[in-house]
Amino acid sequence: MISVVILGAGNVATHLFKAFGKIEHASVVQWYNRRLDALKNHKNDVDITDDLSQLKPADLYILAVSDDAIKPLSSLLPFDSRLVVHTSGSVGLYDIDKKHKRGVFYPLQTFSKTADIDFANVPICIEALESADYQFLKKVAIALGSPTQKVNTDQRKILHLAAVFVNNFTNQLYRVAHEITESEGAEFDALKPLILETAKKVQDLSPYLAQTGPAKRNDKKTLKKHLKLLKDPHHTDIYNLLTTSIQRTHGRKKL
Predict the structure, then answer these.
(1) Which of 53, 68, 160, 247 could disulfide-link 252, Cβ–Cβ 3.0 to 4.6 Å?
(2) Exposed, middle or buried: residue 65 (CB in 10 Å: 0-12, 13-18, 19+)?
(3) Residue 105: closest CA among 72, 151, 69, 67
(4) Helix (H/G/I), strand (E/B), else coil: 28
(5) Residues with Cβ < 8 Å from 132, sequence gap 6 or more?
(6) CB of 90 closer than 8 Å to CB of 158
(7) Which among 240, 4, 211, 226 is positioned nearest to 103, based on CA atoms?
């Protein structure tokens, strides 16, 4: 049985705790957070602590904390030569204090505490200094049911950047669409099947081949009609920026 200590109480930490609770080959033996009240709902499920000096021995320590907290927290851990990993997409492997065996266990997915996550849909990007540590982390990821990918720091940072485009920026576009539909009393829910079909399409086609719409086909009349309908200058700027980007990608002249 693989023993795990989780440090942090955010979205990633919470989902990792839930995921480990569903498998047989690994278990969370302790959960640390500097504010114990953030873990109070789990006090009957696992040993919780806010005292680093009381951390239990374990096979793996997962720092599921903010990027800025990774380096100082790793230096404060009261032991050395144990495997310590962080879950960040943008922090380097070497930000973990050198007294530890170092690794990265980056779940490439969006997490919200209220949303159920199947770790079969959570690719784990793994980085480690030693081959044995990599193989161990891969074993942990497989136990969770996750697909794995071996990456270096540069590749992981690029994946994190790309994830911002496909997740955070796309979600903001959903928000803009919500504002646009609300402005005329239309139902945003009518767009949800389109959202799902768009995401489904890129499972089989490249984003380049999947692109449709007035910008790609250079439908100037429709593009101008859309611009006239937009009442918020911020929305107009976004529309023009993305239209230009699509036209450049598909070899069309600017509007």
Answers:
(1) 247
(2) buried
(3) 151
(4) strand
(5) none
(6) no
(7) 4
pLDDT at 114: 82
Other CB atoms within 10 Å distance of the CB of residue 195? 13
Mean pLDDT, rounded, for 112-120: 88
Predicted TM-score (pTM) of the model is: 0.89
Q: What is the DSSP string of 122-188?
A: --EEEEESSHHHHHHHHHHHHHTT--EEE--HHHHHHHHHHHIIIIIIHHHHHHHHHHHHHHTT--G
Q: What residues pair up with 83 in beta bridges, in sequence order?
A: 101
CB contact at 8 A, 128 and 137: yes
What is the identity of the amino acid at 246? I
Q: What is the pLDDT of residues 124-174, one digit of tens each?
A: 999 999 999 999 999 999 999 999 999 999 999 999 999 999 999 999 999
CB-based contact 33:8 (threshold 8 Å) = yes
d(CA 179, CA 122): 31
Main-chain phi, psi angles of 49, to 5 degrees? -155, 155
Residue with tokens 């049985």: 1
CA pair distance 49, 95, nearest whole angstrom: 24
What does the alpha-carbon distance between residue 158 and residue 17 come to, in Å, rounded to a whole number? Answer: 27
Q: Is 197 helix (H, G, I), strand (E, B) or coil?
A: helix
What is the C-alpha separation between 25 and 4, in angstroms, rounded? 11
